[in-house]
Specification:
The longest helix is centred in the first third of the chain and has 20 residues. Helix content is 41%, strand content 20%. The protein folds into two domains: 347 residues, BirA Bifunctional Protein, domain 2 (2-Layer Sandwich), CATH 3.30.930; 113 residues, Anticodon-binding domain (Rossmann fold, 3-Layer(aba) Sandwich), CATH 3.40.50.800. Helix 2 packs across helix 4, helix 4 crosses helix 10 and helix 5 packs antiparallel against helix 10. The strands form four sheets. It has an eight-stranded mixed β-sheet. The chain is of the alpha+beta class. The relative contact order is 0.10. The mean pLDDT is 87.
């Protein structure tokens, strides 16, 4: 085979569009965020459950419109028995299946949380991925809006647990029943209007991103985006569009004022008035629990999924940061959810009330990185202590040092390459190690090891301090101890850097 043949046979290393690899820093940051979320969920009495990545397509609510494949939005394939299977689209539909399957064994209400990747077979774009992580919490079996209010309060506590300050976020709450009342007044209720209603819901859900003018286009004939792609609209009359946009702008300074305005907006609609009454009950709970300043009634929140039946809510970040070009960036929604009383009923044929909240972990991580939260910064992710190998015939001795460190619970590794001392220290730097252990022949004859503090070493290299400070820093950055004090000395250096 010629060299050109070999090159042509080489597979191009690339990741599919809409997917991304994750390195150790991001994985470690994700794990810390997940721990903080889990601790808050468990504080509220939720317990863990795990469902598989793959479900029967019909269990996800993605029905077969034709004989060829499920409707778009899901990654699907046929099993060897011709059953359609799909990668889960979210974590809510699998929970509904799980609850229905184990209904008689589960305590009711059933409070659970789940975390994991979900998959969307959609066009990828900025901030839109085909695989991303969610962390959900749901209460199944309670029809009380107290369950909805509690999840909203838990969402607020979760964001603060992650280091997002009060005032830098808001939990927005609405009710689908109120929107149903408005749509009824706009003439969108009744047989054959389901698809049109869904377009309306998804259009309103884009209000933060597109603004009122963009949503007006989607409620009308349609909208062409920056790439030239055209999205068909709901084809509503101008009067209906005006009524819906007036509804989304009904929020005023106080929850009480917004609720009074909504009560007038829904008029005589029984369903709309029922929704307003539920929001009033939730607002009373928020005030009583001290959350009235962080949880607001906002009619612009609708959530794009059609299975919501009552209260809906979103966690929105309100702070603004600058990107690398100095342009302002707002992250907006990092989570949301609502009441879905019909999902479990699909399996059981009887109403089963349920409500839940989902955090978009990937988007939340990006926001936490933007504000340099310690929970996600690379400085918070340190590599292992590296034991250098200066004399190949002493490998067993060096391995003994590593074993002692590991026995003391200290992450450590033996250098396994073939480079010299300087290259090994550079390797330790690239591993984000705090310190390295060095023993050459001189140290070995004295029964000592040298500990190099790599963090202080980096500071020393960039130091412009006076001579006294320089000497003190150099003494701390590298020092020798007897072998018996190896573990103690390393622990001191690690403690020095938190």
């Amino acid at each position: 085979m010629t060299e050109s043949d070999s090159k042509s046979a080489t597979v191009k290393a690339r990741v599919p569009r809409g997917l991304a690899d994750r390195g150790p820093v991001e994985i470690a940051a994700t794990n810390r965020v997940m721990v903080a979320i889990r601790e808050t969920y468990e504080l509220y009495g939720f317990e863990a459950v795990e469902t598989p990545f793959i479900e029967y397509t019909e269990a996800l609510g993605k029905f077969l419109p034709d004989l060829d494949r499920p409707n778009e939005g899901v990654f699907s394939f046929q099993d060897d028995d011709d059953q359609w299977l799909s990668l889960r689209y979210d974590l809510t539909a699998p929970l509904a299946r799980y609850v229905a399957e184990h209904f008689d064994q589960l305590p009711k209400p059933y409070r659970s949380y789940r975390a994991g990747f979900v998959f969307r077979n959609e066009k990828p774009g900025p901030g839109r991925f085909r695989q991303f992580m969610q962390f959900d919490a749901d209460t199944v079996g309670s029809a009380s809006v107290t369950a909805d209010a509690e999840i909203c309060m838990m969402a607020a506590d979760t964001l603060e647990k992650l280091g997002i300050r009060r005032g830098d976020y808001v939990i927005k709450v609405n009710n689908r029943k109120v929107l149903d009342g408005v749509l009824e007044a706009a003439g969108l209720e009744g047989e054959g209007r389901g698809a049109q209603k869904l377009i309306v819901l998804r259009a309103i859900d884009k209000l933060d991103r597109l603004g009122p003018n963009g949503v007006r286009l989607l409620l009308g004939a349609g909208r062409k985006d920056e790439s030239g792609d055209f999205t068909k609209g709901a084809d509503l009359a101008s009067s209906a569009i005006d009524r819906i946009l007036d509804f989304t702008a009904a929020r005023i300074a106080t929850n009480a004022g917004t609720l009074a305005k909504l009560r007038k907006t829904v008029g005589e609609s029984a369903r709309g008035l029922e929704g307003v009454a539920e929001l009033e009950a939730m607002a009373e709970l928020f005030e009583a629990a001290g959350y009235g300043d962080r949880i607001v009634i906002d009619p612009a929140v609708v959530r794009g999924l059609e299975y919501y039946t009552g209260p809906v809510y979103e966690a929105e970040l309100t702070f603004e940061v600058k990107d690398e070009h100095g342009r302002p960036v707002r992250f907006g929604s990092v989570g949301g959810g609502g009441r879905y009383d019909g999902l479990v009923a699909r399996f059981r044929g009887e109403p089963v009330p349920a409500t839940g909240f989902s955090i978009g972990v990937s988007r939340l991580l990006a926001a936490l990185a933007a504000i340099k939260s310690p929970i996600v910064t690379s400085e918070a992710t340190r590599g292992p202590v590296v034991v250098l190998v200066l004399d190949k015939d002493q490998a067993a001795r060096y391995q003994g040092f590593v074993t002692k460190l590991r026995a003391a619970g200290i992450r450590s590794e033996l250098y396994l390459g073939s480079s010299g001392m300087n290259a090994q220290l550079k390797y330790a730097d690239r591993r984000r190690s705090i310190c390295a252990v060095i023993q050459g022949s001189n140290e070995r004859e004295k029964g000592e090891v040298t500990i190099r503090d790599l963090v202080l070493g980096a500071e020393l290299a960039a130091s412009t301090k006076d001579r006294a400070d320089y000497l003190e820093l150099r003494q701390k950055a590298q020092f020798a101890v007897v072998e018996d004090r190896l573990v103690e000395a390393v622990q001191e250096v690690l403690a020095r850097h938190g």
